[in-house]
Design a protein that fits this description.
It is a single chain. The protein is an all-alpha fold and about 70 residues long. It folds into 2 domains: about 1-30; about 35-74. The chain has 2 helices and no strands.
């Protein structure tokens, strides 16, 4: 590991710590409520994306099987 990487990571760590402290300081001032509908929408979108990915994967596997069967039958 070069010295430059060590310096960069320590600078990043320091900036992250500064951001964390500023968030802790401002958190009592900002009392923001969590909207359950927003959370449910995020979960629904994640499930929809996951379902789409599994459908595409299944389609690709089926296509490979069909193409392999056609090639073997020739």
């Amino acid at each position: 590991m070069s010295g430059e990487q060590i310096v960069n990571s320590s600078v990043e760590t320091q900036s992250m710590e500064d951001e964390l402290h500023s968030l802790k300081d401002s958190s009592p001032k900002m009392k923001k409520r969590v909207d359950i509908n927003d959370l449910l929408n995020k979960v629904r979108l994640a499930q929809k994306k996951e379902q789409m990915e599994s459908t595409i994967f299944f389609g690709l596997v089926a296509a490979v099987i069909v193409v392999t069967g056609i090639i073997v039958s020739i």
